[in-house]
Amino acid sequence: HQDFEKMGMKIGDTIELNLIIGDEVIAYEAVLMACSSDGGPGFYMPEERLIELIPNLATTDAMFIYAEEGQYAQVKEQLKGLVDDGERFSMVSLDEEIAIYRQQMNSIKQACYIVLLILGIICFVNLINTMITSIVTRQRELGVLQAIGLSPRQLGSMLWQEGLVFTAGTLLISLALGLPLGYV
Known about the structure:
Layout: H1 2-6, E1 14-21, E2 24-31, H2 47-53, H3 72-85, H4 94-137, H5 139-147, H6 152-183
Antiparallel strand pairs: 1-2
């Protein structure tokens, strides 16, 4: 909006434009119907009106070219030669698109692995917390067992086996539910 005001224009003004198509210059008179702060200074018109002014104008903005099997590299090089000569064309080949896709997928995978690592650390700390809580809440029980003859080695073995059972159960449930849900 401010760009048009700087140029001394306002909504409803009739403006004279020159449409330049190659070497041809077409004079055009238009009424300024709206302005926007998006996209910078410029003028837009309906495609139908543009085609009325320039009937042979090709408004194609993208082309997809398929090559026969074994001809991809040769076609790609020839197209690159055509694109390099022109200022108005750009080209993205299939292998470039695949590389971009793989890079995006790797970024997503890395983010997922980081989240999984954080979840794994939280789960491990939770396991340790559960074991410590179990020992603290069972202090009397463990004291009675030691009083009737449970050696420190046997106590350690018992706690170790409980930890293994708890870990194996958690792992089994995680794999039994996690793998199918992961594929879904």
